[in-house]
Amino acid sequence: MSGAARVIWDDALTSYDFGPGHPLAPVRVELTMALARELGVLEAVELTGCAPATDDELAMVHKRGYIDKVKQVSAAGAADLSAGLGTPDNPAFAGVHEASALIAGATLAAARAVFEGTAEHAVNVAGGLHHAMAAMASGFCVYNDPAVAIAWLLSQGVSRVAYVDVDVHHGDGVQAIFYDDPRVLTISLHESPRTLFPGTGWPEETGAEGSAVNVALPAGCGDGGWLRAFDAVVPPLLREFRPEILVTQHGCDSHALDPLANLMLSLDGQRTAYAMLHGLAHETAGGKWLATGGGGYELVQVVPRAWTHLLAEAAGRPVDPATPTPEAWQRLVRERTGETPPLTMTDGRIPEFRDLSGGYDPADPIDRAIMATRNAVFPQHGLDPMP
């Protein structure tokens, strides 16, 4: 097993572009890779390219008729609402199939590297398109690259894959695709469906043998409450499930500055979660860790710094939060966006949380969310839901 981390990147990954004014602007991954490069993070990883996913690979999770529709939209740039393309969330554009297949191919390349042992950890920051359904584009997502990668791992004989999704939105597409498959444990921590798209992800959605796990957190939840919830749910389940490979989705739209959602995490809280997942990959999955990006719509202040921390964590070379952002990167931000760049790699927070061992407060909405999830799924895994 190589101890190296691999980062999958091709400049063509920025061709996944729904057009001016769309929240999912590809400049966010361009600025991420530029920041990681300027800080020397990419010197600590193996940087490799990728090929587009083939139709057969996409068809491991997507209906062939849907793939054909995406190709037709791609050729003409015309909407097909029956495929979910041509909506405000998912505008039709020429080349959409090729751009989406390349993102899926990048996550597949990461999965292959981890499975074959040529890398211990592998990351595709352009991936994490977790809302795409088997036969429908949804929520800015056309092909579901995490699901394609998980299906490929299963096809290679992997018997247990855990998927942990920390995006502010419920990982509904991945959950739906594997809902009846106990080989795949899906865990999603997200803002409550009462207040946020896609309106799913209730704790009662438990899948086959408790294989779907949902932590629906109240709007306004910050670092301390979010990390308390993560600690109360994710480590016990991963330790019990013992996946052969851990797949994670790192949407950073849980940040307080994100314009599309209502959680209140800091960059420092998100960085803490990345470190916790890295540790759990080693503790429960023999170090085999595949990470993707995901949502994140504060394109300058949040996404590049958050995912640079993710890349650095995967490389085993965490970036000191007090590190200044490089002047060359600051100039690039101004040139590409006209915005004022952040000056350091921190929001200045020191994330702290109380674990559940001291008991829970039934009057606290975060603790109620935690206990709803534990009561729904822990008994199905032979775990005691009570702290």
Automatic annotation (TrEMBL):
Pathway: Ketone degradation; acetoin degradation. InterPro entries: AcuC (IPR003085), HDACs (IPR000286), His_deacetylse_dom (IPR023801), His_deacetylse_dom_sf (IPR037138), Ureohydrolase_dom_sf (IPR023696). It comes from the Bacteria. Keywords: Acetoin catabolism. Residues 22-312 form the Histone deacetylase domain. The keyword Electron transport does not apply. Belongs to the histone deacetylase family. This is Acetoin utilization protein AcuC. It comes from Nonomuraea typhae.
